Amino acid sequence: MIKVLGAQIKEFKRDSVLTPVFMILEVIMEMVIPLLMASIIDDGVYAGNLNHIYKIGGLMIVIALVGLWAGLMGAKYGAKASTGFARNLRKAMFENIQTYSFSNIDKFSTSSLITRLTTDVTNIQNAYQMVLRMAMRAPASMIIAMVMAFSIHARLASIYLIAVLFLTVCIACILPKASKYFRQVFEKYDDLNASVQENVSAIRVVKAYVREDYERDKFAKANQNIYDMFLRAEKLVVINMPLMQATVYVCILVISWLGAKTIVAGGLTTGEMMSLLAYCMNILMSLMMVSMVFVMLSMSYASAKRIAEVLTEQTDLQNPDAPVTTVKDGSVVFQDVTFAYHKDGKAVLKDINLNIQSGETIGIIGGTGSAKSSLVNLISRLYDVTSGELLVGGLDVRKYDMEVLRNEVAVVLQKNVLFSGTILENLRWGNQEASEEECKRACQLACADEFIQKMPDKYHTFIEQGGTNVSGGQKQRLCIARALLKKPKILILDDSTSAVDTATDAKIRKAFAEEIPDTTKFIIAQRVSSVQHADRIIVMDNGEVMAFDTHEALLETSPIYREVYESQTGGNADFDQNGGDN
Predict the structure, then answer these.
(1) Are the CB atoms for 549 and 537 separated by under 8 Å?
(2) Which segments of 202-347 does DSSP mark as H helices, in order?
(3) 579 to each of 84, 97, 447, 515, how far by Cα in Å?
(4) Which residues contact 547 (CB under 8 A, 6 or more apart)?
(5) Using an 8 Å Cβ cutoff, are 16 and 132 in contact?
(6) Which among 15-19, 144-148, 479-483 has the top mean pLDDT?
(7) Could you tell me if 365 and 556 are in contact, meaning their C-beta atoms sit under 8 angstroms apart?
(8) pTM to 2 decimals?
């Protein structure tokens, strides 16, 4: 884990080295000042040597300024190193997430990935800055102060040693218990973010069903869980403060009592006594800072593990050593294909054998959960087959460069997604170099141009995040146009005309047949009217191909298809035959 995270320090190694160097220099300057104070008191004030006071006082000012400069430099380089480290972590995580296959993404929830990219990275950033500064400064300050104190009077300085051992034992008892709660609390952040994300993305549904009170209660519960966990941890951690203060006061009292006796006996000067008290504060404050470092490290340990999980996750799908970079045509062949989402999971596709010629229009129909989407997801290699072979253009999809293959397979998914930006910017996701005329032509084929022309800014109309300012049918047609701009060899429409009326659906199918005859088209639909004009239709049930033939033949040979057809045409057909936006 440390190696994985440490690799992201990269160009900030110099800053990471300079920070502790400057912090140690600051400590050295601070440790010299009590000795100079002792010299001023013993050799200047008591001896009546004004020149010595001026000389040592001037030296103290110079040392204090050097210490101040070192502290500022340490803060500067520490901030640069920690923020740079956090930036690299976020960048590396995001880039690795982009390589994930669908099966990799299934392992993490969206809210969990957001928490890891934000809250967890911030924890690591704060911990790293504290390690560079406090983890170097505090031990160095404690050790140097202890050495200085023993050099002045070993017997009195041993009191510090006893105090340090006592506080170390206390911290060792407190921190493990607090760490347990800190590890749990960051997992609760996932639940909180999930609640917020779900509520905001579905706010229209929440308001439509008047579920604001329910959502507030759900959020309050997740928020309260985080509060309770943090409270338990903080109750343990705050015990440090009174223990530290009590120990400091006891040390001051004991040293003052014994030190006064030693001064009377002539074994210690007043200046040395002042220095010992100054070192007492340095030692115990350093120990307090060390305890704070351990608290921060215990808090960030869970975050570090969660970040490392994202960075070390390897995509299940890899390019071959010598990938093929050209897809010959849009033919698709399934040979004894079986597929399961998990290695030991139940197969969702079983013994699929299909032979589809380039340019064919293939309808796919079946009940909910019959694995229609799973079937087409294999074509663009969003998942790999568990067994068997899937050939595109005569070659196994695993032999292609994945980017090349996916550029030749345009998919309009069941859940349509538009991004914030203009209509043109959304369309150019299909082809970054597409001209405005090409975008318009694609929209005409998808029957989207007619409603775009009615918008105030036409193709420059701004689409809100998630496409909330367009209807479901309009969103689907824009997504179809976006896919067409790729000029693919294979076009997959995964129930992507469900929100348009049957008349518009027919226009889109006619445009496909006339304008892209060489493109292999897969149309997944719940309506028989959307697929009955296809060259052939796949009838699926429970992950198996029950029939594969023309509409007319299926009416004769497939009971499942005939039942669906009769239920939809026996007086229950779609009501909107005249067009319009849904």
Answers:
(1) yes
(2) 203-208, 212-237, 240-265, 270-312
(3) 56, 41, 11, 21
(4) 537, 538, 539, 554, 557, 558, 560, 561
(5) yes
(6) 15-19
(7) no
(8) 0.67
Residues 6+ apart with CB under 8 A from 12: 80, 81, 84, 85, 88
User: Bigger pLDDT: 579 or 23?
Assistant: 23
Taking the C-alpha atoms of residue 267 and residue 280, their distance in angstroms, rounded to an integer, is: 19
Tokens matching residue 390: 């899937």
pLDDT tens-digit profile of 286-336? 777 777 777 777 777 777 888 888 888 887 777 888 888 888 888 899 998
Between the CA of residue 238 and those of 175, 244, 249, 281, what are the distances in Å?
A: 11, 10, 18, 19
Per-residue confidence band for 1, with pLDDT thresholds at 50, 70 and 90: confident
Radius of gyration for the chain, computed over Cα atoms and rounded to the nearest angstrom: 36
What does the pLDDT look like over 408-459, one tens digit per residue? 888 887 677 778 788 888 888 877 888 888 888 888 888 888 888 888 888 8
What stretch of H or E contains 353?
strand 349-356
pLDDT above 50 for 572? no
b/e burial code for range 426-446 (CB count within 10 A of at least 16 → b): bbbbbbeebeeebbbbbbbbb
Interaxial angle between packed helices 50-99 and 13-39, expressed in degrees from 0 to 180 and rounded to the nearest 10: 160
Burial 284-317 (b: 16+ CB within 10 A, else e): bbbbbbbbbbbbbbbbbbbbbebbbbbbebebeb
Q: Alpha-carbon distance 564 to 568, whole Å? A: 6
Residue 118 token pair: 């934000």
- Measured between alpha carbons, how far is 98 from 89 in angstroms, rounded to an integer? 14
